[in-house]
Amino acid sequence: MRVLIIEDDSEAASFLVKALKESGHSADWAEDGETGLEMAREGGYDVLIVDRMLPKLDGLTIIKTLREEGKQTPVLVLSALGAVDDRIKGLKAGGDDYLTKPYAYAELLARVEALSRRTVPEEQVTRYAVADLVLDRLSHRVTRGGEAIQLQPREYRLLEYLMKHAGQVVTRTMLLENVWDYHFDPQTNVIDVHVSRLRAKIDKSFDRPLLHTVRGAGYVIRDGSE
Amino acid sequence: MTVANKRTTTAFYTTVFGVTAAAVVAFLVVAALVVAGLVWQTNKVLSEQVLRTLSSEAQVLSATEATGGLDAITRAINVRSELNQSNLYYLTDATGSKLAGNLSRLPSELADGMTGGVFDYTSNGKKGGSERIAAGLPVRLSGGGLLIVARDIEDQRALAGRIRILALIGFGCLGVGGLVLGLVIGKSVLSRVEGMRQASRAIMAGDLAQRLPRSHTGDELDRLAESFNTMLSRIEQLMTGFREVSDNIAHDLKTPLNRLRNRAEATLRDATTSQELQDGLGQTIEAADEIIKTFDALLLIARLEAGAVSSTLEPVDIGALIRDAVELYEPVADDAGLALTSKVEHDVKLNANRRLVAQAIANLIDNAIKYSSRRSRVDGDNRLAGHVEVNVRRCGGNRVEISVSDDGPGIEAVDRQRVVERFVRLEESRTAPGTGLGLSLVSAVARLHGGAIRLEDNKPGLRAVVDLPAGP
Fold first, then answer.
1. CB B28 within 8 A of CB B175
2. Residues of B near A (CB-CB distance < 8 A)?
3. Where are the CATH 1.10.10.10 domain residues in chain A?
4. C-alpha closest to that of B65 among B57, B85, B136, B117
5. CB contact under 8 A, B370 and A188
6. What residues contact residue B396 under an 8 Å CB cut-off, 6+ apart?
7. DSSP 3-state of B370
8. What are the OmpR/PhoB-type domain coordinates in residue numbering (chain A) (predicted)?
9. CA B367, B372, B376, B379: dihedral to nearest 10 degrees?
10. Cα–Cα distances in Å, from A192 out to A146, A208, B154, B294?
11. Any idea which architecture A122-221 has in CATH?
12. Contact residues, chain B, for A87 at CB < 8 Å
């Protein structure tokens, strides 16, 4: 995956470049808005990480300009502004996801990876499968090894989201935002309890666990434990 | 210079003194004009009276001369001048040589013999030779002689002089008295203002408990002091709140910062294997996350209190919102041995910021679970020992009440108001996880929407009630 980071804080940027490279991606860095816009136009990037406050050209203008030019590259907006309104502004301008500074790298990586796979039109996917776990989006049925699993509606949506991002780490915040549409951090680890309940239903009576906890990051559903 | 002297000196610059001085000056000018006018008028009346008398006397004497000749008039003049010292005469024959009269010389002012007037003369009577003033009338006699009939008006002049002196003394007393009075009042005002200045300096120096001194007379200064004192009380209240808040911020940010530092230090000192290093750093990051959470909550509250988020109101189906929240927290409540249920009146709508209201409700549920779950743990493995209920009902015409009740330990009545404030966590709960901002955030969200939060006794437990205006 090729990522372009448009960020004026050189320390944060070089940390990101290094971390993304270590995660097996390639990353470029633009220090100001104008350079960033030029590189984004030329470039074949899979995901753009755009800081909101930039010298010369601010982040939201870059995104708007790109969208007006018909470029649909997914954008993750980074900002120190975390309030509800700012987030909405960021998404309205054409950003695909919004992350508030300070962020955990795991959170950023999970979101960037989630964005990079968006190119598949997911509405057309009718069925997710990981090993012998199958989720049928048309009948809303879940089976493992052919055995039907009864899920609550929310558990179904949780599993659906995890399976859509199979093999990819999904953070608690991403689950809260996408499954519950909650854009704040509940104090208690509510998500953990939900995931462990889901795990009890899909993994407990089977030899091979599919739903894994990734320490310090979140969860991943995948075949094999690694 | 002593303080008292200095105060007297500065009293000259008070408004009271200035106004008094101006009033005194204005009064003196007017009074002087009036007195001068009066004196002038009196003088004029008296002089006219004298001239009228002189004129009739002149006619009499002129008639005497016409009938009896110069001898007769000379005799008459001699008799008359003996009779009264202030009757003055001067008689000449046609050649101009003096025939009779007690005036030593012909007053030059009247020498033309045409018009009467005032002249100076030297008295040679009993009083000795003194310069006096007289009013006189010249009469041309039929025999060609000239008669001056005059009257001494020195007394009249002296009266005018006395009036002038009296007026001057009066004016002097008035002026000095007025100024002194002004000075005294000015000084008293000044001393009150000085008291206020000292109080305000003490306040500026940080003693917010100081109040401006009051006279309780209800005058303008007193009323001013009263309203300033009310303002100071409000400021003191705010500052106390602010100080408490900053103390709490210091505590709640420094505690995790300290923990972060300790963990980093311990890792640096003790970790020998890379696993230990990783664990240590992991804990450090957790501590940092805790600080970020607190910070985010603080910022959000600050923004809510500044009213910076109000632009995003939308119709909210509160029933759906509660269902979602209950569904999210139900497993956690279950783990804590609590039954989480909801009772929502049909079709209640809010016009609100959906996310903020959701967050507020989540906070309340979170609190209820967090603080009542411990009891059920003490009770042992008694499943569903407690109960948390979320309730939504219409209240009056256009209010909606969202309440979250638990049957946990509750909060003492005296602490209920306090816990809503920013960062206040009761000592018993200091160890529980959380930023201590949950209820303050709910309160800020409620206020933003024109509502309020109140805490009630649920007997047993706590009921947090958020009262919001209903939507369209």
1. yes
2. 282, 285, 288-289, 292-293, 296, 299-300, 303, 308-309, 311-312, 324, 327-329, 331-332, 335, 353, 355-356, 358-359, 362-363, 366, 369-370, 433-435, 438
3. 122-221
4. B57
5. yes
6. none
7. helix
8. 125-223
9. 140
10. 27, 20, 122, 21
11. Orthogonal Bundle (1.10)
12. none
Task: Please report residues of B whose CB lies closer than 8 A to that of A197.
Answer: 331
Whose structure tokens read 């009993």? B126
Q: Where in the sequence of chain A do the CATH 3.40.50.2300 domains occur?
A: 2-119
B300, B332, B442: best mutation site toward chain A, by most A Cβ within 10 Å?
B332
SS3 content of chain B, % helix, strand, coil (to 5): 60, 15, 25
**Bridge partners, B69 (sequence order):** none
Q: Which CATH superfamily includes the segment(s) A2-119?
A: Response regulator (3.40.50.2300)
Instruction: Order across the sheet with A97-100: list the strands.
Output: A26-30, A2-6, A47-51, A75-79, A97-100
Question: Which residues of chain B are within 8 Å of residue A186 when distances are taken between CB atoms?
Answer: 328-329, 362, 366
B123 burial via Cβ count (<10 Å: 0-12, 13-18, 19+)? buried
Residue B86 contacts residue B78 (beta carbons within 8 Å) = no
State the ipTM, two decimals.
0.79
> Which residues, other chains included, contact A136 with Cβ-Cβ below 8 Å and sequence gap of 6+?
A126, A127, A142, A143
Per-residue pLDDT tens listing for chain B (472 residues): 556 666 667 777 777 788 888 888 898 899 889 888 888 888 888 888 888 888 888 888 888 888 888 888 888 888 888 887 778 888 888 887 888 888 877 777 777 767 777 888 887 655 556 788 888 888 888 777 888 888 888 888 788 888 888 888 988 898 888 888 888 888 888 888 888 889 888 888 888 888 888 888 888 888 988 999 998 888 887 787 777 767 777 777 787 788 888 888 888 888 888 888 888 888 888 888 878 887 887 777 777 777 666 567 888 888 888 988 998 898 888 888 888 999 988 888 888 888 888 889 998 998 888 888 754 444 555 555 788 899 998 887 788 899 999 888 888 877 777 777 655 555 545 445 566 678 888 888 888 888 888 888 888 888 899 998 887 7
Burial degree of A111 (CB within 10 A; 0-12, 13-18, 19+): buried
Q: Compute the distance between CA of residue A200 and CA of residue B450 in angstroms, rounded to an integer.
A: 44
Q: Could you say which of A82, A104, A193 has the minimum Cβ distance to residue B296?
A: A82
Min Cα distance A85 → chain B (Å) is 7
Helix B438-448 and helix B274-305: axis angle, to 10°? 30
Residue-wise DSSP of B233-267: HHHHHHHHHHHHHHHHHHHHHHHHHHHHHHHHHHH
